[in-house]
Design goal:
Elements lengths: L7 E5 L9 H5 L5 E4 L2 E4 L10 H5 L5 E5 L7 H6 L13 H13 L2 E3 L1 E2 L2 E2 L6 E3 L2 E10 L2 E11 L3 E10 L7 E9 L2 E9 L8 H19 L6 E2 L3 H6 L5 E6 L3 H24 L8 H20 L3 H8 L1 H11 L2
Antiparallel strand pairs: 1-4, 2-3, 5-9, 6-7, 8-9, 9-10, 10-11, 11-12, 12-13, 13-15, 14-15
Length: 326
């Protein structure tokens, strides 16, 4: 791990802040609060620098600036007695999804992603907490990435993503399960490789037929609050299930868990039936262009980039994100 982790400098313009609390709901670590009408941060040493608070502040009152590496050495001392020695009990979502993939697709793990050795991410630690980011290959698929990132034992970000090979127009698959002590951020979708509004056949084959019944089942999970990430909803399918939910009652969390499993089963069925197409055809050029747009938007906006850069450093984070993002 990078020995000089950047210390977070969290700043609020008191002339702009209206104390609305939007940032409090957005923060995945739940370390913000409003005091005397102004947003303040608690335990800033565990800030992930994901940028979610400042992106969602309606008044643009929040800013985050990274300090120099020399100043950041105080990060280790700041943790002190606040260190969480044992992780919370997190939902084993990846265990179930990985077992399903192994049983159905028999993927093989690879430690070389586009000529880059990624074995260092097979098992690593962030402040003593176990993490991993693994890359797999299988038929009709460019990559399967499975990652679990544990931040101080207070939050875990579990992600499974599948990107199709260039000669297949099938959707991506993605599950993002970010869990803390009292809430979960969830995203699950078969992200289209073609514009479903432009191509109604694509909409019917890859989205409506496999997902409509499942969407009707899971679209109104009690307590699920809509996602604040508008750019995500803009590029995903009409059948995306996403938002934040409290962990109690547990039956609502179970519905999210089952949604992830059912959507993956639907994607696996599409994968098994998929036929290759000419990657040089006009149609697949359109597909390729859309996939590049999806990838660019994720690399530009995904809030996971900030934490990875903070805890791994610029170069290692760049390598990991290339493997993990679409």
């Amino acid at each position: 791990m990078n020995e000089a982790i950047r210390k977070t400098n969290f700043m609020v313009d008191e002339q702009l802040c209206i104390g609305c609390g939007v940032c409090i709901d957005a923060c995945p670590m739940k370390i913000l609060k409003v005091e005397e009408g102004i947003c303040v941060i608690e335990k800033d040493f565990i800030c992930l620098e994901c940028g979610t608070c400042l992106r969602n502040c309606p008044e643009d009152a929040i800013s985050i600036e990274g300090l120099s590496e020399k100043e950041s050495s105080s990060f280790q001392d700041a943790i002190g007695k606040e260190r969480i020695e044992e992780s919370l009990h997190f939902t084993p979502i990846l265990k179930k999804l990985t077992a399903l993939l192994i049983n159905e697709l028999n993927p093989t793990q690879s430690f070389d992603y586009k000529g880059v050795d990624v074995r260092e991410f097979d098992d690593y630690k962030i402040e003593g907490q176990k993490c991993y980011a693994r890359f797999y290959k299988t038929d009709k698929v460019e990559k399967i990435t499975i990652s679990s990132t544990n931040f101080f034992g207070k939050m875990t970000a579990d992600v499974l993503g599948i990107s199709p090979s260039p000669e297949y127009d099938i959707p991506y698959f993605i599950v993002d399960w970010d869990e803390s002590e009292d809430h979960i951020f969830f995203l699950c979708d078969l992200t289209p490789s073609e514009d479903p509004g432009r191509n109604l056949e694509y909409l019917a084959t890859y989205l409506y037929n496999p997902l409509d019944d499942l969407y009707q089942k899971y679209c109104e999970i009690p307590g699920l609050k809509n996602s604040v990430f508008h750019w995500v909803r803009a590029i995903h399918s009409p059948y995306i299930i996403t938002g934040t939910i409290e962990k109690n009652p547990r039956e609502n969390v179970a519905m999210l868990f089952n949604c992830a499993v059912d959507y993956l089963k639907a994607w696996i069925k599409i994968h098994k039936e998929a036929k290759p197409k000419d990657p040089h055809s006009d149609y697949m050029k359109i597909v390729d262009a859309r996939r590049k747009t999806v990838s660019a938007l994720y690399h530009e906006n995904d809030p996971g980039g900030g934490p990875m850069k903070k805890f791994l450093g610029e170069e290692r984070a760049k390598k990991a994100l290339a493997m993990l993002l679409p």
